[in-house]
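Look over this record before class:
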Amino acid sequence: MITVMAGCISVVHGSALVVALSDNLSASALCRYVCIVLTADDHGEGGTFALYSLITRYAGISTPGICLIINHTVQNRICSCFLSAGIKQSHNPFSNTRIAALLRSSKGARVLLLAVVLLATSMIIGDGVLTPAISVISAVVGIQVAAPSITTGAIVGISCAILILLFVFQRVGTSKVGFTFAPIVLIWFVANVMINLYNIIIYYPAIFKALSPHYLFLFFIRKGFSGWTALGGTLLCITGTEAMYADLGHFSKASIRLSFLFVAYPSLIITYLGQAAFLMVNPDSYSTTFYASIPSPVYWPMFVVAVLAAIVASQAMISGAFSIIKQSINLGCFPRLNIIHTSSVIVGQIYIPWINWILMVLTVAVVAGFQNGTAIGNGYGVAVTFVMLITTNLMFLASMVVYNVNPLISLPIYALFLLIDGAYLSANLFKFLNGGWFPIALSVVVFAISAIWFYGRQRKSVYVKANSQYLEQVLALGEVVTRVPGTGVVFSDTVSEAPPVFIHMMTNLPAVYETIILLTVRSVPVSSVLPEERFLLRPLTNAPGFYRAVARYGYSDVVDMGPAFAAALKQELAVAIKPLGASLPV
């Protein structure tokens, strides 16, 4: 819940100049994400994996050893997604920039690119733990502000109960949870604007001068080292923008930009200014600014709205974590988990039980362990700044590889955002021992899981390659093996050779089906593959009854081998058999 935390700590050093810092930081987030980063969508999908997909696709690269072996053969490029992305079936369809050439020639550069993306993914998953924790406990603490006799233990207990209920209800689906609480968002923004316009009028109408950027420099001149450390607190005024980009697949760019420009951004600025105006008269209330600045007649209604708004913010981040995990699984960088679709209309609305319960346990543990929003906020700031820093670097890379922007134009913008990200990251790392260590430790664990899974898949690929034989040698056995009616499907990690299981089947079974399909599942570097373009199937030369098939999936698609998959494969087989004058086997 952005406004609650930003309002509480944006003036933590007792100076209204900090509000100028927060306002200008919000403007920076507006320019970077809404105006620039949102343009880098991969067929409607956003996040670090979308940027990675764009870069690899246009650079014509793959990461050696990865189980899904992203390649750019003609078979992949005939996908509509490839054609609509501007990658044509030409002799040299890829970017010819020096950066792209370096990525194609250097294995180390390709592995480093993937490692950076996985690190950002790990940090976003950390966001999925810290966002619900800091949002809910920061809202519930309003009880203690109104009734100081309430103990911190009671606040922690209430917060944990709300969080448990939130995660329990995830199984009903994102759309149902979101629809239930969606009106709260509008009420939240309107209420904040009304209350803080009142504060501005009553306490300090001249507070609008804080919008001037020169106060940003004045703040650092006056505060020096303490001004630099204050950056970690003001960062919370823009948290959520990185999740906004990751959740791009749930909404259109137009809807995000309109809602941010005309609803979220103006209301946040009014909120910061109103709370600063209140602090000009009540400087001792800096630690509870949000609740202290609410007029008493509307205190409890606003408390209820704040708690519900915290649930909405938590829901958005949890959904983003589900999407990121699904993309990691589809790219072969995370263990395969059960993914449940909660909507028959919106493909991106999913529920992953294992991840949901792990996030719940970790979130409750964070609240129970830290017991206050300050320490959680320190950790939250570290996670957010790491994600923003990585996004800035990937966006700069994409600007040259994908969009062919002249480096003389992109480099100054990149340097400016890199300076901002570096300053905020260093300020947050200064609080490493006071909560900043948690997202780093969590990201290391998640990254290790991804790396170990990747290594295991790589070793499997090496084994399959070493124990495979040329397909012609194995198929020659088909002439002496008894054939029985029916169709068999053999999954293969290779598209050119015979997998070990197929060799074992042909050499040890007394009979095999008269129709055998060697099926390979591949992920192509696009967000989604059209169902009618899912399969590539062809008969094998000089091997009657044998077919080679490739099933292609984008990183946002769900790999489902159920009845619908079997029916579609059967249909493709019927199309392949028809020109041969054969009948479709049972």
Observations:
- The longest strand covers residues 511-523.
- Confidence is low (pLDDT under 50) at residues 1-17, 63-78, 82-93, 580-586.
- The two ends are 57 Å apart (CA to CA).
- DSSP finds 23 helices and eight strands in the chain.
